[in-house]
Specification:
6 strands; single chain; about 100 residues; alpha+beta; Nuclear Transport Factor 2, Chain: A; globular
Length: about 100
């Protein structure tokens, strides 16, 4: 992570700073140790990597089979080999096209 790493979860206020983000992720994984990301598609353009996928074991508190019905997109912006921004956006047709996650 960059020193000024930003986590942006949908329309929530961003969390800025490596130390704050490391602490937040440690807390999240401690609270939800069964959290798993299942990537469906990955695309890269320039310094942004987009991952469309599903999760289980998250804070949503859903049964795995219900949580697996939900899909979202993670965006990672990389700066000199470190993640500068980690952003979650809605998995919509528009966003799949915008980030290159459509079928070829």
């Amino acid at each position: 992570m960059t020193v000024d790493h930003t986590l942006q979860v949908f329309d929530e206020d961003p969390l800025v700073g490596r130390d704050a983000n490391v602490a937040a992720w440690r807390g999240y994984f401690a609270a939800f140790p069964e959290y798993v990301i299942y990537p469906l598609r990955v695309a890269a353009a320039g310094n942004v990597v987009a991952v469309q996928g599903r999760t289980t074991g998250s804070h949503l508190g859903l049964a795995d089979e219900d949580e697996l019905q939900l899909s979202l997109i993670w965006l990672a912006k990389v700066d000199e080999g470190a993640v500068d921004r980690w952003q979650l956006v809605a998995d919509t047709a528009t966003n799949r096209r915008r980030y290159g996650l459509t079928h070829a």
